[in-house]
Structure formats: structure tokens, C-alpha cells
Design brief:
alpha+beta; 3-stranded antiparallel beta sheet; 3 strands; about 30% helix; globular
Length: about 180
């Protein structure tokens, strides 16, 4: 009449038998495509030397202002937009008095910093120069930094050649 307990018993016995026979591999393969960037040994494009802002970044911060809203995105050099936040989002817009005042910029920076940390981005490149030291853009950048995001990317690790005088510390070796 009621067959659920028998199905549960069968599933339990199958799962325990399957787990008991699985071998544990000694090798671990990390399939995260951005793992090499986190270790600073991934490819970082150089671009052309005549380009003004340059293209030497893994992740770059962009800030765009329209008539009503402010959009902030973080772009990867190959894959495009990775993280974005906007004052046009309903959850953020509902809490703001205006969508383009100083508090909107500050709160947009807080939201973007939180999303970056959830995504695993702690270092991004920022070419934005605030026009005023106490203006809206400065408050946006300040909120990003207070949220735990560094606005400078570390340089790409280049292996030392035999004739190099100085050998830099390898980023994957932690010395304490």
C-alpha cells in the first residue's frame, strides 16, 4: 500500500555501497578558470603601448552615469562583465531617496563590494580618478575600499631567468 520506506531503504543501501567502493584520488585538478589569475601566474594582456588607459588587467572597474541611474560593472579582459550593480535595481532603488545623489553612490559602492567578495574578487584595477576629493565618485571608491576590495591588481608573476639579479617570492609559496 505505502511503498516509500522500501524505496528509501533501497536508496540508502545503494548510496552506502557506492561510497564504500569509490577510490580517493591523490591528485586534485582545480577546474576554476580563474585560478591562475588568483595565483598571479595567469596571462595578463599587455595591449599596445600607445593606448592611454592600457589593457594590462584581469578585472577592471567601470562606472557609468545616465540621466537617472548609476551603473557599476567589473569586466574581465576576456569574458566581459562579471559583476554588476546599479541604482536602477528595485531592491537598491527602494531604499534610496534619489538614484544619483552622494548616498546613492556610496551605497552602490557598498553593494558592489559585497558582490565582489561573494564572487571572490578582492583586487581589481581602477582607472577612475574622482573629479573632486570629496565628491560622489570619491565616496563610491571609498565605499568599495571599506567593503574589502583593493583597487589595485598585483603584477603578473614572471619566472626568474638564470641571469636575473633579483628573484621575487613565488605567490603560491606562503612563508610565515
Amino acid at each position: 500500500m505505502f511503498q516509500l520506506p522500501t524505496i528509501t531503504r533501497i536508496c540508502r543501501s545503494f548510496c552506502t555501497q557506492a561510497n564504500a567502493n569509490l577510490p580517493i584520488s591523490a591528485n586534485f585538478v582545480n577546474r576554476n578558470p580563474r585560478n591562475l589569475e588568483r595565483m598571479r601566474i595567469g596571462y595578463k594582456p599587455d595591449g599596445y603601448h600607445v593606448e592611454k588607459p592600457g589593457r594590462c588587467f584581469w578585472h577592471k572597474l567601470n562606472l557609468r552615469k545616465t540621466g537617472r541611474y548609476v551603473y557599476a560593472t567589473i569586466d574581465h579582459f576576456e569574458n566581459g562583465t562579471v559583476v554588476k550593480a546599479s541604482t536602477s535595481e528595485w531592491a537598491l532603488k527602494k531604499q534610496l531617496y534619489k538614484c544619483r545623489d552622494t548616498s546613492a553612490y556610496y551605497n552602490l559602492g557598498r553593494v558592489l563590494a559585497e558582490r565582489c567578495l561573494k564572487f571572490g574578487l578582492i583586487e581589481i584595477r581602477c582607472d577612475i580618478v574622482p573629479p573632486k576629493p570629496d565628491g560622489r565618485v570619491a565616496h563610491f571608491l571609498q565605499a568599495l575600499q571599506e567593503g574589502g576590495v583593493s583597487l589595485q591588481e598585483p603584477p603578473q608573476f614572471k619566472p626568474a631567468r638564470p641571469w636575473d639579479q633579483f628573484r621575487f617570492e613565488k605567490p603560491w609559496e606562503v612563508t610565515e
